[in-house]
Design brief:
This protein has nine helices and two strands, in the order ααβααααβααα. With 212 residues, the protein is mostly helical. The N and C termini lie far apart (37 Å).
């Protein structure tokens, strides 16, 4: 609402509810891509150099992209997230969910998929963010939307594990395991954040239940 009580235009509401934050992220990703091979080579998840001590790659690999098409696909995913979940989490909570998803991707690839020598892209984190969004919908009145989104994610992830990924990013080999690991991390992070929100709203400590 504006000062005189009239509703704000949809774009203004989107901008205030996190659109500006997502635009800043998109610009940052584009700048990293524009940095070319030196940035790509220095930031990608790369098993051999991580083993040698370059631990920043565990997170930074999610931020670089192998081609302009790869970047555009992930930016489209960011735009979808901003439209689906305006206001479901705060910027701080989204940042924590994204970080948890990124770390889940790195841990999953390191221990669960040791054959993956290198990985780049935001798709694993985006799957985690979508999963966290579904958690928020399950805890709100949007149950039917939560059912639809959860079903889509489960079918997509299961299909990828059985049949492999779709080459939306050009000639790159899609690392479908990263999608699964990111979704698991996002689900756990979303559940924890949503649970803390509920307890703050009700005044109950974590683990306690309300009146019966």
């Amino acid at each position: 609402m504006t000062a005189d009580g009239t509703p704000r235009p949809p774009f203004v509401r989107w901008w205030r509810q996190g659109g500006a934050f997502l635009v800043a992220i998109a610009l940052g990703l584009a700048m990293l891509w524009a940095g070319g091979a030196p940035v790509f080579g220095g930031l990608r998840y790369e098993r051999s150099t991580i083993a040698a001590g370059e631990l920043w790659r565990l997170v930074s690999g999610n931020l670089v992209h192998a081609s302009g098409q790869h970047l555009l696909v992930n930016l489209a995913g960011l735009a979808l997230v901003s439209l689906l979940f305006p206001g479901d989490y705060s910027r701080r909570e989204w940042s924590l969910i994204a970080l948890a998803s990124a770390l889940a991707v790195a841990a999953g690839l390191w221990w669960g998929s040791p054959e993956v020598e290198w990985y780049v892209g935001l798709s694993g984190v985006l799957h985690g963010v979508l999963a966290a969004g579904a958690i928020a919908w399950w805890r709100s009145h949007l149950r039917w939307m939560a059912i639809v989104l959860t079903a889509i994610l489960v079918v997509k992830l299961a299909g990828e594990q059985l049949l492999g990924g779709i080459g939306w990013s050009g000639d790159l080999n899609v690392i479908v395991d990263a999608h699964l690991y990111g979704a698991v991390g996002g689900t756990l992070a979303g559940a924890i954040v949503s649970s803390r929100r509920r307890h703050v709203a009700t005044g109950l400590p974590p683990g306690a239940s309300g009146p019966v």
